[in-house]
Olfactory receptor (Cavia porcellus), 315 residues
Amino acid sequence: MQHTNHSHQNPGSFLLMGIPGLEASHFWLAFPFCSMYALAVLGNVAVLLVVRSEPTLHQPMYLLLCMLSTIDLVICTSTVPKLLALFWTNAAEIAFGACAAQMFFIHGFSAVESGILLVMAFDRYLAICRPLRYGSLLPPESVGKLGAAAALRGLGLMTPLTCLLARLTYCSRVVAHSYCEHMAVVKLACGNTRPNNIYGITAATLVVGTDSICIAVSYALILRAVLGLSSKEARAKTFGTCGSHLGVILLFYTPGLFSFYTQRFGQQVPRHIHILLADLYLIVPPMLNPIIYGVKTKQIRDGALRLLKRGSAQS
């Protein structure tokens, strides 16, 4: 694809390159991405159906898990269908508005997911360290308010980031990425991009820094409480429940931070490696999260089996 030297104020569309250096492999790379997307959709929809059909699961932990599944569906669905069209049919063009919307959904809902993971850590802290007051401190109706607060914070912080794109003049329409990642689009601008860079780094560091510190404190307190339990069986059960949550947290933060900071500072990282990892970051956690919770959480497993039995009985 040819880069254009003309300037565009709000160009009508951009052209996505996919994974630079791996263009010849796009067709074959699409198959594992399609399989992972199908598993992500099936797994997260299954979690939503199980929790909805089981009144005993209408508790904070499982309601938060439903929020996590919904966010994962939004993030991967805002990216993977367009990525598959690009890889299989070379549908590289994306309208400016669609690009801005995709960026908003990816970055905005990633910030919301970080907030939900923080609430989940708070939920586990109350359940383990304050069990006698758990029901009064975190009733099911308060979960919706905490989820709304996480959504308001995440989407509110990312709205200006998307709006800042409109003020830029672009020297090229070719985005060296598989989707409209913020810095990949900003690098196409001709003028001063410092406000975009400063706001993007500040917002991401504020969200991830605040949430990760609070999550670390919560789990330090949980660990201290668990080690104080006299029963080995109780310790093992608690570690199993918290282990699945910690796995989801690491799966979310580790590749996300790597992708975010290498896009800005990691010039030594080969571009195709960085973009491939960024693509996987948007699909692997949504695919694995329901599997992790399904394997580790007996109530989810049992609910899924009952749901399957009811479905087979009706057929």
